[in-house]
Amino acid sequence: MLLPNGTFYHPTCASSQTSPVLITADTAIPLGGKGSTTNINIPGYISSARVWYASEDVLKFYIVWNPATNSPTMVIPSAADPSDASADVNWGFVELSYTGSGLFANVSYVDFVGLIMGIRLEEKAPVNGTGVQMAQGLQTNAIKSICDGLTKQTGIDGLEWEKLCLADSKGNLLRVLSPSLYISDQPTAFENLWTSYNDKVWKQYQSQVLTIDSQSTNGNIACQVQQSDGLLHCAGSSTTYARPTANEIFGCNEGPFAISAGANDIHKAIVPRLCAAFHRSTLLSSGGNVQPSLPASSYYADQASNWYSKFVHQFEGDGRGYAFAYDDVAPNGGADVSGSVSTGNPGTLRIFVGGSG
Hints:
This protein is α+β, with helices and mostly antiparallel strands and about 350 residues long.
């Protein structure tokens, strides 16, 4: 954790600490008012880090001994647990890695939409172009707009979309949970979202070939459903693919989308592209027999779609920001909707809190 004085703080606890204990060190870095800038220098390299922001209150972090790793483990705020100490706080984060290879950051809504923010990365002495990359983040009133869209979608298909919207203790809209986070507590939610769509996909690709463009030296991978076992078989893959459930699609890391230690590179290429195609409902679209190949304008055209992701992108200032795990999948030359910025020559990373307009 980074302290206000610009040094790293490493919270710890004894091996006897089996219940989470509040970290009381002052790790909050106060920000100024609207239009102000707070400068922060990172004193060393960090990997898989988060820059957390909260409005009108500080977030509460805890530490507990983890016998599985034989080391202290930090307990972070939960966006979904109503009993969490920070449940009534408006907060969010930017994901960040800064190593000897450079800097990577992204705006992520994979788990939830909370405090609105965007990012701008400026290279040090850029060689080509302006040396500036940006993900604007969500618009100022995006949470209400997203929830209006989700409520309307519930009226159309009767599914739990409107329940993704959470209010604070005063009844004000506070955040929007992703379907995958909501399902972690409500496992039967959305279970029939892709049932009919899956039937059509499996029927179509019994007689047609689904081509996965690996976008690597592995080239195009031919896939087809075999009637003998009802599984999708892909040439050269270390595994076969069963029809995914809604839970597996939303998470992209279980069932046919699990990547085991022994998985080969072809399977590793198929998983993100196939899972993204289900989220965006492009498998039955014209040209959808090649994944990825379609432009972002063709995403979410079927009722069997991740409507949370659809509305998140709709109300982003530039349409960029991860709304599910493999939202960085794009056709060659296509628009990057993931909201990530990176460079091997980092200068300044600017994080804007409050929205893009």
